[in-house]
Design the sequence.
């Protein structure tokens, strides 16, 4: 260090002020560069991470691409297909033909798009048991709960002329009913729910008296789960909780519990009767929920993380899907399911109640 100071003194004596200043800059740069290099080598060689100071209300820094813990969540999928791609198709794909879908008292049309894919369209209609916006709300609720059993659903507007003109030959007989029951605006438009069409659905007959008695025992704390029934019963228990939260009392009215033909996958469709404004839940839906004492650990986690804001659903076409009273009642029923599972866990233990992953 003494040699460096002496060098500066010599420079000041022998050089002009300008040269002296330049020498000082060069000397200081060399000194700082050596210190920085020494510090950098020390940090790289340390095996201990250096914690950043915590600043209240400071924005969270963006995660490094190499960080597994902060990696973005994978896209939601339905039957292996990306939800967003399906939703875009449901909103915008050109309609090739319209077919009347038989079964039930609601007006349901099978839409075939120009690319060959299909959807179920429920127009706004005079039938009080079928409110299309609730189908879209049920889809959004299912995704908030981590449930992939409700097909992607959006709201879409279609003109009266297009529906009538593209009605296929087999469905011409339903034209008077379509014009009578669908509600059209002064401009001749109807707004309804457009749901991805699941092919080859089968009635799993889980709503027969014999089937109800069997799964009530299996899903009780005294019942045993067989390997061949566990997959199906895990989905059924989630359906019972889902139906109570959305207040769908129509599930066990016959033919509304459907799934794949191999009886391994349930699909939670036909939700247009839910979301009534009863904060305590319909007694029928509550009765079926209370038959079940075994649930999914994933569903339980989702219920605990679900905020009040998560239960406000919107569609780009229509805006809010539920009224303020419907949202308030939905939150109340969510809380009631949480209390029910909490009580079960206290009585029987977490592992016994959360029997499914």
Sequence:
């Amino acid at each position: 260090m003494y040699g460096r100071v002496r060098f500066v003194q010599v420079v000041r004596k022998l050089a002009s002020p300008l040269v002296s200043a330049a020498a000082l800059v060069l000397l200081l740069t060399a000194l700082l560069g050596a210190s920085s290099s020494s510090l950098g080598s020390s940090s790289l060689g340390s095996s201990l991470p250096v914690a950043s100071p915590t600043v209240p209300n400071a924005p969270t820094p963006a995660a490094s691409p190499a960080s597994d813990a902060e990696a973005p969540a994978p896209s939601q999928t339905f039957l292996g297909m990306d939800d967003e791609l399906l939703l875009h198709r449901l909103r915008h794909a050109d309609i090739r033909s319209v077919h009347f879908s038989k079964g039930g008292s609601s007006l349901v049309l099978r839409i075939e798009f120009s690319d060959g894919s299909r959807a179920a369209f429920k127009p706004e209609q005079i039938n009080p048991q079928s409110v299309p916006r609730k189908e879209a709300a049920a889809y959004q609720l299912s995704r908030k709960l981590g449930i992939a059993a409700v097909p992607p659903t959006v709201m879409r507007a279609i003109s009266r002329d297009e529906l009538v003109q593209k009605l296929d030959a087999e469905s011409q007989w339903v034209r008077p009913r379509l014009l009578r029951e669908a509600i059209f605006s002064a401009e001749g438009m109807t707004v309804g729910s457009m749901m991805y069409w699941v092919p080859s659905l089968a009635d799993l007959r889980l709503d027969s008296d014999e089937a109800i008695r069997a799964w009530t025992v299996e899903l009780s704390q005294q019942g045993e789960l067989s390997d061949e029934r566990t997959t199906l019963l895990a989905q059924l228990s989630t359906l019972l909780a889902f139906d109570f939260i959305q207040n769908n009392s129509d599930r066990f009215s016959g033919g509304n519990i459907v799934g794949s033909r191999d009886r391994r996958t349930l699909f939670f469709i036909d939700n247009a009767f839910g979301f009534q404004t009863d904060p305590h839940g319909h007694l029928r839906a509550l009765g079926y929920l209370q038959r079940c004492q075994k649930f999914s650990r994933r569903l339980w986690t989702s219920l605990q993380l679900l905020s009040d804001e998560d239960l406000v659903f919107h569609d780009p076409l229509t805006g809010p899907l539920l009224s303020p009273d419907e949202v308030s009642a939905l939150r109340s029923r969510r809380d009631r399911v949480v209390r029910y599972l909490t009580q079960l866990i206290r009585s029987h233990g977490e592992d016994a109640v959360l029997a499914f992953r």
